[in-house]
Automatic annotation (TrEMBL):
This is V-type proton ATPase subunit G. It comes from the Eukaryota. The keyword Ion transport applies. It comes from Digitaria exilis. Catalytic subunit of the peripheral V1 complex of vacuolar ATPase (V-ATPase). V-ATPase is responsible for acidifying a variety of intracellular compartments in eukaryotic cells. One of its GO terms (cellular component) is vacuolar proton-transporting V-type ATPase, V1 domain. Signal peptide: none annotated.
Length: 110
């Protein structure tokens, strides 16, 4: 009877070991599936982000290059306005500058 008990105990241990191995294998498979799913989700997010950045870049390129003629025209107008403003300011203070220069040139200090 002792032999039967030992045999039964060994069978139980083997069954428990097989069950534990199945549990470990199932956990490994689940972990592998989660990692694969996480990798796929990350790749989708990266692709979506890359697409957004690319479209933003293309939009900015189109804005800057598409309006280059308009930008040049706008810059020319701004430059002309600034030159006109500077000429006007120079014309306004020119008599004062001339008077100051004449006063300093004609005044003799001992």
């Amino acid at each position: 009877m002792d032999a039967n008990r030992r045999q039964s105990g060994i069978q139980q241990l083997l069954a428990a070991e097989q069950e534990a191995q199945q549990i470990v294998n199932a956990a490994r498979a689940a972990k592998s599936a989660r990692l694969r799913q996480a990798k796929e989700e990350a790749e989708r997010e990266i692709a979506e982000y890359r697409s957004q950045m690319e479209s933003e870049f293309q939009r900015k390129v189109a804005e800057s290059s598409g309006d280059s003629g308009a930008n040049v025209k706008r810059l020319e107008q701004e430059t002309e306005a600034k030159i006109e403003q500077l000429n006007q300011q120079a014309a306004n203070i020119s008599p004062e500058v001339i008077q100051m220069l004449l006063r300093h040139v004609t005044t003799v200090k001992n």
